[in-house]
Amino acid sequence: MTDATAPAPGARSRVGQGSLLRQDTRTIKRNAAENRFRIYGLTAICIGILMLVFLLTSILSNGLSSFRQTTIQVPVTLVADRLDPEGNRDPAEMARVTTFGYAPLLRDALVGTIADAGIETELDAGDIADIVSDESVAQLRNFVLANPDLLGQTMPVEVLASGRIDGFFKGRVTYATAELDQNISPEQLRLAEALKAEGLLATGFNFDFFTAPDASVTRPEAAGLGVAILGSLYMMLVVLALALPIGVAASIYLEEFAPQNRFTDLVEVNISNLAAVPSIVFGILGLAVFINFAGLPQSAPIVGGLVLTLMTLPTIIIATRAALKAVPPSIRDAALGVGASKMQTVFHHVLPLAMPGILTGTIIGLAQALGETAPLLLIGMVAFVREYPDAPWEGGLFDPATALPVQIYNFTQRSDPAFVERASGAIIVLLLFLFLMNLAAILLRRRFERRW
Amino acid sequence: MNDMRLSERDVDMTDVKIAARGVQVFYGDNHAIKDVDVNIVDKTVTAFIGPSGCGKSTFLRCINRMNDTIPIARVEGEILIDAEDIYDRRVDPVQLRAKVGMVFQKPNPFPKSIYDNVAYGPKIHGLAKDKADLDAIVEDSLRKAALWDEVKDRLDAAGTGLSGGQQQRLCIARAVATSPEILLMDEPCSALDPIATDQVENLIHDLRRNFSVVIVTHSMSQASRVSQKTAYFHLGELVEYDDTAEIFTNPKDERTENYITGRIG
Question: What residues contact residue A194 under an 8 Å CB cut-off, 6+ apart?
């Protein structure tokens, strides 16, 4: 006779011997562990978001002002016999007059304008001229050389205010800091305020920031990203034209055609390893192979593009192979089963299905290449370039250029505080490009996926 | 007794569509098919039955050289289709597969329209002279697969949007569109419900008029319903091959008997 309440011999203890309404100690412990884990995860995410917010705030607060620029309206009289001593309106002859010939014109025009407006100032003519950027004189000269027929007339010219005056209207420079600054005096700031009150000085959208080339260390107000954006664009073209076909061809071969042997294993391992090679190593490789051995020019987008292609290839190959692998084998069977050749199977069925993944991988690779700085430093793209490269079909890929990330690096190397604003502005532009590329990746993926 | 039958069968070689002679298949070191000899008769449905892993699918995939896609698979012996060895070096598997169509276990339509699914084979083999010709092939194939009436109004719809049974019939239409002589079916109904299965089985009956059908199935009742000849595979060997009625009512081998009476497998 066995006791009904006693556990049967060999019976194991059960879960929830007591009431279901009360948690047992084990369950309490388990739930506590789960809650703790959730809190850890949430904390990690919060820290991440906080850092991102901090980064964006700092960049935006420093950089947004670079999209605005202070300019001064001055009617300049283009005195013919000073700008064209020979009197024949030949730009080649006129080019002998340097900016020193133009500076007095602008200075006189400014002093005249101030006097006409009835603004009283104790400043001498030299100090008045200093509220205008040095770059303005060069701009005026380029303008005259391009339009020699305008000589003798009085032209309304919009000139850049100097970096300090620009900074004053963006809140970077104050009367207090101007006291200590030998480049600007409070009196000049007062003059600028008076000009603004007369409507002769205004702060507007800074188109030149996107189109103008870099400017010298003393002219932050004139520095732009034109050459850098063009250089980055050219490099992206080179990367896209080389990395996409080579990467996709290599992946298709490795994934669909290559025999499984030691050699292909070695290739695969090396591709994965290449993805982790520091980018500066690719820079040294590019320096050795493309510049020293192949003799391509320094600072050229073609070399930058080739180096970035090498760097992007592993990313594209890995993404493409993953996308090809993700295509169900039943599709391959189906195509082979109706008598498609291996290549028809790949190009008619596998590749279209893998396309969203390939495109995403490519764009992510491109975005990575767009932000890459280190290899470009080694192939001379860190140089100061003021000339725009020609159009790609006119050999512009071989002209010197800079790239966006390198331009940012360059800006941050300069002492004038106005370059902090320019660097942050350039970062915003770079981030905007990256954001647009990622958006394109997402849209392309959506579009391709909706087809089936 | 088996020898007697083999010699008997050799007499009517005129009807033999597929003849396998000493076929061995290895997956690496694994000997998957052991010395299979079989004559498959034209315009009949031949069923391959046997427990899982007995090699019936492997052998089926040898007939259109789908095993070529598996790098470690190795086939020895010879398989003759119309007295030509398909493992001859001169044979291009692509050409062979146009002649030997295949329907797979899981319906695997291309992620394209119904029309494109069926038209793909004729297109790549250049079977249609013009668009009208291609349209005719597509309609004919869909009719042969008993799917025309259900999809004729939506040929542009995605093939993957059909129901499971319709998808499998679409795959059959796709396979017959290249006018093969032999149709291989690898458990074509295992992913289908009973109603769809019934439709596909009826279809197999009709297909017999135009094709030699070889079907691998797990269901013995299906084998008995659709086939005229049945081969029983066990651990890579062809144990018994005879008329379906004979196999199911009067098996010669103990292993066959055990399997069909449900004692193994």
Answer: A117, A119, A121
Count chain A–chain B contacts defined by CB atoms under 8 A: 67
Taking CB atoms and an 8 Å cutoff, what residues of chain B touch A339? 94-98, 121, 124-125, 178
Within 8 A of B177 by CB-CB distance, chain A residues are 338
Superfamily of domain B2-260 in the CATH hierarchy? P-loop containing nucleotide triphosphate hydrolases (3.40.50.300)
Q: CB A328 to CB B174 under 8 A?
A: no
Calculate how close chain B gets to A344, using CA atoms only, in Å.
Answer: 8
User: Strands B45-49, B212-216: parallel, antiparallel or unpaired by DSSP?
Assistant: parallel
pLDDT band at A15 (very low <50, low <70, confident <90, very high): low
* Domains in chain A with CATH codes: 67-206 (no CATH), 226-450 (1.10.3720.10)
Residue pair B169/B127 in contact by the 8 Å Cβ criterion: no
Chain B segment 142-161 residues within 8 A of A by beta carbon are: 158, 160
* Three-state DSSP state, A276: coil
Model ipTM value:
0.84
In angstroms, the Cα distances linking A376 to A285, A383, A396 are 11, 10, 17
Within 8 A by CB and 6+ apart from A312, the residues are A239, A243, A247, A365, A366, A368, A369
Single-letter amino acid, residue B254: E
Q: Rounded to the nearest 10 degrees, how much is the dihedral formed by the CA atoms of A339, A343, A346, A352?
A: -100
B125 interface with A at CB cutoff 8 Å: yes
B-chain residues near A340 (CB < 8 A): 94, 120-121, 124
Closest residue of chain B to A334, computed from CA coordinates: B108
Provide the strand spans (E) within B86-175: 100-103
* DSSP secondary structure string for all residues of A67-92: GEEEEEEEEEE--HHHH-TT-S--HH
pTM of the model: 0.81
Amino acid at site A300: A
pLDDT > 70: percent of chain A: 95
Give the pLDDT of residue B264: 64
**What phi and psi, each to the nearest 5 degrees, are found at residue B179?**
50, 60
